Amino acid sequence: MKIIKYLLLTMLLAVLSVSAWIYYPQYQINKMKQETAPKVEKTNKLTYIDYYRTSPDQSIHHLALGDSIIRGYRIADEENFISQFSAQLGNETGKQVVSNNEGIIGITSERLYHLVQEGMYDEAIKEADLITVNVGGNDVLKAVKQSDIYSALTSFDSLQKSFSENLTGISARIHELNPSATIVLLELYNPMPADHQFYSLADKLLPKWNLKIYEVAKATPSSIVVQTTNVINSNNLHYLSPDGVHPNPIGNTAISAQMLEQFQQQHKADAVLANREN
């Protein structure tokens, strides 16, 4: 009887441990989103849009670093979300937005980390008011190409660790060079249809990956994470190009709209506002 109770208790603890491993990252992400959500009460803080609208500068420099999501994959330059958001930001603020898209198709977080550390973008970073970074998807795709989807998913922890270290280094270097710039990061999204054999597993692992992005943003002043998973998901597969991975023109429009909505609602960090006044 004691053995049976012991086995049942062990099974219960195992189930609870697995549940915590799966759901705790999403809980943490939701908590961080609530911390940056607009409050009902009045605030003296400026939203990102208000911050740029009231800036004494007549132009806004928008630098974009990262992969094919940044560059735009097999679409016109004006259709990628960087170009679309820059145009919308200009309309919202009444300022000229100068966009510099340095996206590189196929780049991994490790490669971008080394380019940033080697000073490839130093001058552009120093000049920028807004720096959008998206990287990490190719880390996963590279692992899949070298083996298969299952192997890539089972090696998730090591992939995530390397990605987290690279993104931390990229963000820290950007902030070191330009403490006043807004750093925009994007969630990694799951492009698989709901009936794909690996959809459920990928959907459970995704919050663990995105949690690292939120942690990097939280540790870096004046950073914001675009909630890409709100718009690119199994309910909106029409936002994807024929390859089933990259957003098509309307998918880029959806990402740009999500980014603009957060800029209209979330607030610029106090430390950055203080830098403007000094």
Could you characterize what this model shows?
This is SGNH hydrolase-type esterase domain-containing protein. It comes from Mesobacillus subterraneus. One of its GO terms (molecular function) is phosphatidylcholine lysophospholipase activity. Residues 64-252 form the SGNH hydrolase-type esterase domain. This protein is α/β, with parallel strands linked by helices and 278 residues long. The protein has a single domain (2-277), classed as SGNH hydrolase (Rossmann fold, 3-Layer(aba) Sandwich), CATH 3.40.50.1110. The protein contains 12 helices and 5 strands. It has helices spanning 2-36, 48-53, 68-71, 81-93, 109-117, 122-127, 137-146, 149-154, 156-177, 199-219, 249-265, 270-277, and strands at residues 59-66, 96-101, 130-134, 182-186, 223-226. A 5-stranded parallel beta sheet has the order 2-1-3-4-5, sandwiched between helices. Strand 4, helix 10 and strand 5 (223-226) form a beta-alpha-beta unit. Helix 4 runs parallel beside helix 11 (249-265) and helix 5 (109-117) runs parallel beside helix 9 (156-177). The chain is globular and about 55 Å long. Mean pLDDT is 86; it is low at 5-19 and 271-276.
Kindly state the percentage of residues in helix. 55-70%
Detail the poorly predicted runs: 5-19, 271-276
N-to-C CA distance = 73 Å
The description of the largest β-sheet is: 5 strands, parallel
The CATH H-level superfamily is SGNH hydrolase
What is the 3D shape? globular
SS-derived structural category: alpha/beta
Q: What name is given to the CATH topology?
A: Rossmann fold
Order of helices and strands: HHEHHEHHEHHHEHEHH
Q: What is the residue-averaged pLDDT? A: 86
